[in-house]
């Protein structure tokens, strides 16, 4: 029931924010239609002096409106997940070049992969997206450069911890991205999973990164934990359920034997 309440509160927040976007969109439409009207009047009067200016205004507003709907669509689109047994250490290694290129030379990136890491049950391409997003957030928190550590670990969550962390008890592995950046005050940490919450300047942040990562992790049967200290840095950890498929298949009796009995 508590989870349901939380969910409905989240939906309400989405509704409010969607309403906000619709309002912005309407303002842009008003701007476009006003510019077109002025252009029309000038053309009828044969006075073309300001027509190009109105056109540029209308074009700019159109572009911004398109960007707005694009963002909204990207957010509302139901993510269909294709989970499978995934070696997260290998996934991280495969992303390292791309991550380094994305964060730039001022940010040092290192990995600490647990050697006996359990396989995860997760959609690998969604996890790649999430990892890149976390590294971009980390870079944005370190305008003067710094250090990113990408770390994997096996985690047993007992019933007590499970209640505390709002996830089922069981075996998980975690993928953590730590930075040496600005960190966040508790009131920001409390809001980072809300869609469209951002502290970044207009045009730089969508406020969708962490809310999408949260949705993806919950949908995968996992969780996202954040530890942040102002002035010291932030660690964001994605918990994913341990994949059991491989082990079950190994322990199953050989299929050939069963068939020959039948
Ligand atoms: P966006 O990055 O577009 O703002 P996110 O949902 O990814 O959207 O992040 C929301 C906010 O959370 C950011 O604007 C920032 O204030 C804060 N944040 C996220 N990651 C970090 C981090 N590693 N260090 C400091 N602040 C962060």
From TrEMBL:
Domain of life: Bacteria
Gene name per UniProt: baeS
Organism field: Methylobacterium aquaticum
Region of the whole protein represented: 313 to 574 of 697
Name of the molecule in the record: histidine kinase
């Amino acid at each position: 029931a508590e989870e349901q309440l939380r969910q409905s509160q989240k939906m309400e927040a989405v509704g409010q924010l969607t309403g906000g976007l619709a309002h912005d969109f309407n303002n842009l439409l008003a701007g476009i239609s006003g510019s077109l009207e002025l252009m029309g009047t000038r053309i009828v009067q044969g006075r073309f002096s300001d027509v190009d200016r109105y056109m540029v205004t209308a074009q700019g507003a159109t572009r911004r409106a398109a960007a707005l709907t694009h963002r909204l669509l990207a957010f509302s689109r139901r993510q269909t997940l294709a989970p499978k047994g995934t070696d997260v250490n290998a996934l991280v290694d495969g992303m390292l070049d791309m991550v380094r290129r994305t964060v730039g030379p001022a940010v040092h990136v290192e990995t600490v992969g647990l050697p006996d890491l359990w396989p995860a049950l997760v959609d690998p391409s969604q996890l790649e997206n999430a990892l890149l997003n976390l590294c971009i957030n980390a870079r944005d928190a370190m305008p003067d450069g710094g250090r990113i550590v990408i770390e994997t670990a096996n985690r047993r969550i007992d019933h007590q911890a499970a209640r505390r962390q709002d996830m089922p008890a069981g075996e998980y592995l975690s993928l953590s991205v730590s930075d040496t950046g600005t960190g966040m005050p508790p009131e920001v940490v409390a809001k980072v999973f809300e869609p469209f919450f951002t502290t970044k300047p207009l045009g730089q942040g969508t406020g969708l990164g962490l809310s999408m990562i949260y949705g993806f992790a919950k949908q995968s049967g996992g969780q996202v934990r954040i530890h942040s200290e102002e002035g010291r840095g932030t660690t964001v950890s994605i918990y994913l359920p341990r994949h059991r498929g491989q082990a079950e298949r190994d322990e199953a009796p050989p299929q050939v034997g069963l068939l020959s009995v039948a």
